[in-house]
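pinned: reference chain
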Amino acid sequence: MDKRTPIRRGRRGPPISVLAYGLAALCLLPVVAVALAAATGSFETWRHLAGTVLPAYALNTVILAVLVALGTAAIGTGAAWLVTMTRFPGVRAFEVALALPLAFPAYVLAYAYTVFLDHPGPVQTLLRDLTGWGARDYWFPEVRSLPGAAIMLILVLYPYVYLLARAAFLQQSATAYLAARALGRGPWETFLRVSLPMARPAIAGGVLLAVMETIADFGTVAHFGVQTFATGIYRSWFSLGDRAGAAQLAFCLLTVALLLAVLERIQRGGARHFNTGKRFEVLPPAVLTGWRAAGAVALCGVPVLLGFLGPVVVLAEMAVGSGQDLLSPRYLGLVRNSVSLAALTAAITVGAALILRFNARLAPGPAGRGAVEVARIGYAVPGGVIAVGLLVPFAAFDNALDAAMRDAFGISTGLLVTGSIALVVFACAVRFAAAALGALDGGFAAVPPNIDWVARTLGAGPFAMLARVHLPVLAPSVLTALLVVFVDVMKELPATLILRPFNFDTLAVQAHRLAADERLAGAAVPSLVIVSVGLLPVILVCRGLGRRGARAAEVTPAESAIESGVRP
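pinned: its structure tokens
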């Protein structure tokens, strides 16, 4: 029998397929709802948007995305090359430290730098004390600006490029590099013409991920007063009450996000091809000394200092003098809301991802794979777009149900769905299903297909096979998926801010609210808690990548002597 023949033809096969396709349809619901709401909106709204705010939103979003793409590509690629292909003092620490800024939500970094660089902050205060200048006697860059928002996003998003580029460099064979060196090419020319092109798909994939996060960002641009599609959606829906305009802005952002998602998928497919020959030889890292080593330390240390160490110190100092008590009933309630929302969403999301991925294994055809790819779309869709896409159909359902109950029984049901925590869980599950699927992919790939056939021969149905055969093997991947989704939900702001029930605030919402009221010292306490939780998956990813590169990191004395003159 052909091993690619679907094994779900048994009597108990269809239910899991039906469940998987139903879950994929639910993931697609916000996208369809936004498209329908935008299409059914009046053309007057379209014309009004095009003549007023749409050009500014589009221009600011494009400029922000371009700046972030250039910044993350330069920092992420350069840092990945240095820690992978060279050896200098502290390189082992930098391998992990360079990924730590990923634990920061960009809006938390924005709060820290606003306090640090604003007019009353320590930097400008010290400048005035040293020079004796007054407030109008000097010019200082405005942190609350579009370039400021771009810098914040670059500092927290370059680890996407760094992690993918480092993995690509670790998988490169030394054959092509050494051949170019033997032909007389210099180190820089070899890097630009050999190593960089082979890693280009992975670098492009990381840049696209950073750009997708950029166009989805709400907290940073809202705090800095930068008008983008993300802030425009929130302003149109809540401040102006223009729901048709919000849906049409969401549709514009959705179109861009889906285009980026398609490009990222194409780049991910190309990122698998790094080696150019059958021989695989590890390139001995170049040992840097003197000013070259100092330069490498500086180049790797600046992103860590600006993206992690500096903000942590600033936030800690702000938190100490803020008067906020993390053990007070108010904050304990915020922690309980955040943890319960994140835990419930993580359990539901990972359970759904298991069903989708297992169905694709049982039915390795277009339908099974298509259901998984549909579920991955949510990661490309900004949280504000998902929120609008869920509010439109469920608000209509609540209104229709309330009207029917009033007419039939004289009872008002109110906001049965849109006023519940269930809708927030739904939105976050759609948003982060791709993260859970990505964590599970490696685990399923490690289970040999023959195990499925043996289990079916012994009479196990699909659910029994998943519970008794796959889950014990998948336990590490499942735990990783739970942790990643948990942390992502803890950091999520726009969807939670828009959909949360009354009197249900999370740490992210509390930080945003205090920052919006210019109470930045108070926002430091919930921000530090979010960052602390976010460190867990970052360290986990770095440990896994470090084990993969352990063999490449070994340098013999002979190799060190040979390569001591080869410096990138």
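why pinned: The chain has two domains: 12-41+323-517, 42-249+280-320+554-568. The beta strands are 86-87, 286-287.
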